[in-house]
Design goal:
Layout (H helix, E strand, L loop, with lengths): L1 E2 L2 H9 L8 H13 L4 E2 H11 L8 H23 L6 H18 L8 E5 L13 E4 L1 H7 L4 E5 L7 H14 L12 H14 L5 H12 L6 H35 L2 H11 L15 H11 L6 E2 L1 H9 L6 H7 L4 H13 L4 E4 L2 E5 L1 H6 L4 E2 L6
Parallel strand pairs: 3-5, 6-9
Antiparallel strand pairs: 1-2, 4-5, 7-8
Helix pairs in contact: 1-2, 3-4, 4-13, 5-7, 7-8, 8-10, 10-11, 10-12, 13-15, 14-15
The chain binds zinc ion.
Zinc ion binds next to helix 7 and helix 8.
């Protein structure tokens, strides 16, 4: 298989659990490496890029970063081999998945009427300046601005696998968009779109791929507050699911479909006052592996982010180790390594050092689950 462009790498990166704390920083950092090796045979491109990341001892922050990037890339390469058959024209995938999702929505008794899904260079007025991959336009937009109801994808953000994944989210918005309303499609509605969109996406993707995409979009480190808002909305909707199950969420979908998003706003109002009981919703259909994923998602430790060298040191340390021996004899640059070890103790509280000894080490569980993550520093 040939790598046509960097979009393919991007798409597969979203499908992969990374050690890096920010998928955006990861892709921004690596784009120049890939651009200089593309086009080419997949194996050769990956080999070329990972070779450019080769480092030598002593290992300081920069070398640690190169080594970790190379390891994340190897995971992406493995995933690419696994799902290479899914790399095809995103517009074709969008069309096909629209049809699949529509059937499922019919099965949930929320058929979409007159909804179009299209790809355009830019969003129509007055949304032209909005920087989003895709947007849903509702009956309000249709009546006020003459924008046909449905979903528009921006062409420059199209990605195989990822665009059809996002379509599932947007179609849940469409369900709430059939009745005229001045309410914004925000808050609880976003959370419902994320959760029910994830379930819809299982129709076209393996569960672990869908879940990785959601993790990369919503748990990646970001300085932009907007992304925290999405994550918080998922937490709220997940609590609702925990009380009422799919039956409850589908009940809201049906109510929203028939009466508009004001129904969601009313429920959100109750939740914001702390009332999760007696919402008058159906209750049932709890799916054990989905329960587990949502619980994992809402309790994911987002703060365990360290420098690349701290990450590499965490992999080497053991209880009882001598600090001096570790920083001087494992190929590390000793001054930087000492600081990086301190960081594991002072910033994320996973290590305890006394005198010259490591007397506690809690890093392994978080390394194993990729919940300890490394940050790409601007100084490098
Ligand atoms: Zn949304």
């Amino acid at each position: 298989m040939n790598i046509q462009n960097f979009q393919t790498i991007k798409a597969i990166a979203y499908c992969t659990r990374l050690r890096c704390s920010s998928i955006n920083s990861f892709l921004e950092y690596l784009e120049p490496y890939f651009v200089s090796h593309i086009p080419g045979d997949t194996n050769k491109v990956f080999h070329g890029v990972t070779s450019s990341l080769i480092f030598s001892e002593p290992i300081g922050q920069k070398e640690a970063l190169q080594s970790l990037l190379a390891r994340d890339l190897r995971d992406i390469e493995t995933n690419l081999e696994r799902i290479a058959n899914r790399i095809e024209d995103p517009e074709t995938q969008i069309k096909r998945s629209f049809s699949t999702y529509s059937k499922r929505l019919n099965g949930w008794s929320v058929p979409l009427s007159s909804v179009s899904v299209r790809v355009e260079e830019r969003f129509p007025e007055p949304y032209t300046n909005i920087d989003a991959w895709a947007m849903n336009f509702d009956v309000y937009d249709e009546q006020e601005f003459g924008i046909p109801r449905g979903v528009i994808f921006r062409r420059d953000y199209l990605l195989p696998i990822i665009s059809p994944f996002l379509l599932a989210h947007e179609l849940i918005h469409c369900v709430f968009s059939e009745v005229y309303s001045h309410h914004l499609a925000r808050g609880l509605e976003e959370g419902l779109c994320e959760i029910l969109g994830l379930v819809l996406s299982y129709e076209i993707l393996d569960k672990d791929i869908s879940q990785n995409i959601l993790i990369n979009f919503r748990l990646s480190e970001s300085t932009a507050r907007i992304w925290q808002i999405y994550t918080e909305a998922i937490r709220q909707a997940a609590q609702l699911y925990a009380r009422y199950g799919f039956k409850g969420l589908k009940h809201i979908l049906r109510l929203g479909h028939d009466k508009g998003r004001k129904v969601v706003k009313e429920i959100e109002g109750r939740l914001m006052h702390g009332h999760y009981r007696n919402l008058g919703l159906d209750c049932g259909e709890f799916v054990p592996d989905f329960d587990d994923f949502l619980s994992f998602f809402i309790s994911y430790p987002q703060s365990l982010i360290v420098s690349p060298l701290s990450y590499c040191i965490a992999e080497k340390i053991n209880v009882g180790d001598s600090v001096k021996k570790l920083v001087n004899h494992q190929g590390f640059e000793s001054e930087q390594a000492f600081k990086a070890l301190q960081e594991l103790q002072d910033q994320v509280f996973l290590v305890l050092i006394k005198d010259d000894r490591i007397i506690s080490d809690e890093t392994k569980l978080f390394l194993e689950t990729k919940t300890l993550r490394y940050k790409i520093h601007k100084i490098i």
